[in-house]
Design brief:
The complex is a heterodimer of chains A (about 240) and B (about 260). With about 240 residues, chain A is mainly alpha-helical. Chain A has helices at about 10-25, 35-40, 60-70, 80, 85-95, 125-135, 145, 155-160, 165-170, 170-180, 200-210, 220-230, 235; strands at about 1-5, 45-50, 180-185, 190. Chain A has a two-stranded antiparallel sheet. Chain A has a two-stranded antiparallel ribbon with strand order 3-4. In chain A, helix 3 packs across helix 6 (about 125-135) and helix 10 (about 170-180) packs across helix 12. The termini of chain A are far apart. In chain B, helix 3 runs antiparallel to helix 5 and helix 4 crosses helix 5 (about 225-245). Chain B is about 25% helix and about 25% strand. Chain B has 6 helices and 11 strands. Chain B starts with 11 loop residues before the first strand and ends with a helix. Chain B has a 5-stranded mixed sheet with strand order 1-8-7-4-5, with no helix packed on it. In chain B, strands 2-3-6 form a 3-stranded antiparallel sheet, with no helix packed on it. Classes of the chains: A mainly alpha (about 240), B alpha+beta (about 260).
């Protein structure tokens, strides 16, 4: 099947639908699925060159979302596709049931209506995982801590680092964040990593911002950064 | 609880006048050339030079050799950075290790949309996107350590109707947008960021404050000045700008034609 891209009218109608869903979710009224006409009406969207891969999409976590869309979008089109917010908004409409747990978890509109600003993009439930996965596609395990959750959940590590441009293109930093906060046995963030106290992601962000004033982070490897971490991070190193 | 603050370790600021980055755009192809004058900074000859081209969520790094042996001045391709708003960071790094010896951040190419040849525009225009219902807005790219990149006047791509460069020549658009944009940026600098004015600095907030001081013929309020004084200064600057460019009279004249 060919993937489509909303036009302005399509985005407007889908946004109205999301707002209505949120309202109904609050009042407990039933929420209707996205209509087929919204997805395919030529007055709301146009065809793109992208095709859905064969087989049903299985979005069990954000990692699988990233992996799926890396199969949809050729690597050499990434720079263009990541900025195509009408495409990502249409995709969110198409997969609305999958990314809302069957319309049970309705988040704010930016989770579905894509924005390409770096403060916003990672909040989109499809574009965010795709972009992060693409940048770590040589070894996605490096960003598992950002993408291990189910599609509707945003963990504290993702909240802190999702908009940190440097992290998106720096493998060493990605590895440090992964090593520090991901519990490989439990397959989720380490206990206490969601807090706001010493050693937590919020504090690591502040540390990165500080050292970045004096050090060129792309020139430092993973172990050097690891060894530079102040004592307060020791409890997550162990 | 505050993170232990590191001081700047003798990092030098490279003056904007010592950096010239020219951007050439032909269709979708985009290339830049960089001219750096670093001889006055007493940097080790084997210190490494990197230029980072940034746009939205992506950065491309270029190795420009060393201070003693800079690489040849050639056009470097950055076509994969989409949109008009590309900025450049220049970093001079220790020969071994990663300490920054000299930096310049958020440098704009000299030939952007609103700039005269050889000048750096105070408020570049980006009309490459739709703004979700807004005709215009001011955008900043947040940098690290709470610093921000220079403001950009974003105009909805459908509002400019394919002619971004002529949009602000319309007297109504100028009158309705520019004083409000000026006001918004100055409030950001003075009230929200509480930026301490440094008259000789090449940082973008200081360039804006110098511009505002020239408009008002008044001193820039200090960072500690009461909020009302700052807002009064902003108000004066906005009105002075409108008067000096005759925005109201031009608007009325055009409307009555």
């Amino acid at each position: 099947m060919t993937i489509r891209r909303f036009n302005a009218k399509g985005v407007q109608l889908f946004e109205a639908y999301v707002l209505q869903c949120r309202q109904r979710h609050k009042t407990g009224e039933p929420i209707e699925p996205v209509t087929q006409s919204l997805l395919t009406d030529p007055e709301c969207s146009v065809e793109t060159h992208y095709q859905f891969p064969g087989g049903a999409a299985d979005f069990k976590d954000k990692l699988s979302i990233g992996e799926y869309f890396c199969r949809v979008i050729p690597d050499d089109i990434h720079a263009e596709a990541r900025l195509d917010k009408e495409l990502w908004t249409w995709l969110a409409a198409y997969f609305f049931d999958e990314i809302t747990e069957g319309r049970k978890k309705i988040k704010e509109t930016r989770a579905y209506i894509a924005s390409i600003g770096f403060r916003e993009f990672y909040r989109h439930l499809l574009l965010g995982p795709y972009f992060i996965y693409f940048n770590a596609r040589d070894n996605p395990d490096r960003v598992r801590v950002l993408l291990y959750n189910d599609p509707t959940t945003m963990n504290e590590v993702m909240v802190q680092f999702g908009s940190y441009q440097t992290l998106m293109q720096n493998k060493s930093l990605q590895s440090v964040v992964q090593r520090l906060y991901f519990d490989e046995k439990a397959k989720k963030i380490k206990k206490g990593a969601g807090d706001k106290v010493a050693g937590t992601p919020r504090r690591l962000m502040a540390f990165f911002r500080q050292i970045e004033l004096n050090y060129d982070l792309p020139s430092i490897d993973e172990n050097e950064i690891w060894n530079m971490l102040p004592k307060e991070f020791q409890k997550f190193k162990d | 609880m505050a993170v232990t603050r590191l001081k700047l370790l003798n990092r030098q600021k490279i003056a904007q006048s010592d950096i010239k980055i020219a951007l050439e755009t032909i269709g979708k192809a985009k290339r830049f050339t960089a001219d750096l004058k670093l001889h006055g900074y007493r940097l080790p000859s084997d210190a490494r030079i990197f230029v980072d081209a940034r746009q939205l969520m992506e950065t491309i790094r270029f190795d420009l050799g060393t201070v003693g042996k800079p690489s040849a001045r050639v056009a470097r391709d950055i076509s994969r950075l989409h949109g008009e708003r590309v900025t450049f960071d220049v970093n001079v790094i220790t020969p071994s290790g990663a300490q920054k010896l000299a930096t310049a951040e958020a440098i704009r190419p000299v030939n952007e949309l609103t700039g005269a040849p050889g000048s750096v525009p105070l408020l570049p225009v980006d009309a490459s996107r739709d703004l979700d219902g807004l005709v215009w807005c001011i955008e900043y790219i947040e940098k690290f350590g709470g610093r921000t990149d220079a403001p950009v006047l974003c105009i909805d791509q459908s509002a400019v109707n394919g002619a971004a460069s002529t949009f602000l020549q319309d007297s109504a658009a100028r009158a309705l947008i520019l004083p409000a944009a000026l006001r918004e940026v100055l409030i950001r600098i003075l009230v929200m960021d509480e930026h301490p004015f440094e008259p000789k600095s090449e940082e973008w907030p200081d360039s804006w404050l110098r511009f505002a001081a020239k408009l008002t013929c008044d001193d820039v309020p200090s960072a500690e000045a009461p909020k009302d004084d700052k807002l009064c200064f902003v108000d004066q600057a906005s009105k002075a700008f409108s008067r000096q460019h005759m925005l109201l009279s031009n608007f009325i004249r055009e409307r009555n034609r």
